[in-house]
């Protein structure tokens, strides 16, 4: 396939390596300053979007309007999700969105939901979420952290929403604590903890590099060919 990369930073370069290893070609490498309308995408099969929250909406809109299937790895644009989903359907285009494209993280999402279902019958345990990323990450909490928190809220009757604060600052038992930490050179760690006075249960996912995110986005790009509609990594992986 011919793939266009929207965003050519560290993630874009990691995606490029995997695309070339799997026999694909790069049709364009797009930076924030490029004028999309001036570029020829006639030979592009799929776009992989890992730019910035500020650029994502316009990039997605451009692709959907021009019927370019798009894999969206950028987070921070989900306030416009309904608008862009409707555009995707109205233009008969295709997009895959995910807060995290890592295969391991998407398995972790399912594990998190299953554990929350089990813990719903054990209200003595207090639950909290922690996400740790590199200091260059622009959004906090991470999209992955939000997905994990929302998975818990959907299964645990106790919680109605999350807040990006530590457990000791939560004043309402209906609020789930989602803590963000930023440390140098950390690809990403996500932890879910259930604890009471007797014991503690923890599950976590730790990324060793960006390769997992890059590989997942390439697998998604390979999957989306000849499909129409709005999809997630759960569709790609059959979860």
What do these coordinates show?
This protein has 239 residues and is α/β, with parallel strands linked by helices. It has 2 domains: 2-101 and 211-237, 3-Layer(aba) Sandwich (Rossmann fold), CATH 3.40.50.720; 103-206, Dihydrodipicolinate Reductase, domain 2. Helix content is 35%, strand content 25%. It is built from 7 helices and 11 strands. The protein has a 6-stranded parallel beta sheet with strand order 2-1-3-4-5-11, with helices on both faces. A 5-stranded mixed beta sheet has the order 7-8-6-9-10, with helices on one face. Helix 1 (10-21) crosses helix 6 (211-224) and helix 4 (103-119) packs parallel to helix 5. The chain starts with a strand and ends with a helix.
The CATH topology of the largest domain, please? Rossmann fold
Query: Which architecture of the largest domain per CATH?
Result: 3-Layer(aba) Sandwich
How are the strands of the largest sheet arranged?
2-1-3-4-5-11
Question: Which percent range describes the beta-strand content?
Answer: 25-35%
Question: Unreliable stretches, pLDDT < 50, 5 or more residues?
Answer: none
* Dominant shape: elongated
Radius of gyration: 19 Å
The N- to C-terminal Cα distance equals: 25 Å
CATH class of the largest domain: Alpha Beta
Main beta-sheet annotation: 6 strands, parallel
Q: What is the total tally of β strands?
A: 11
Name of the CATH superfamily of the largest domain: NAD(P)-binding Rossmann-like Domain
Count of the separate structural domains: 2
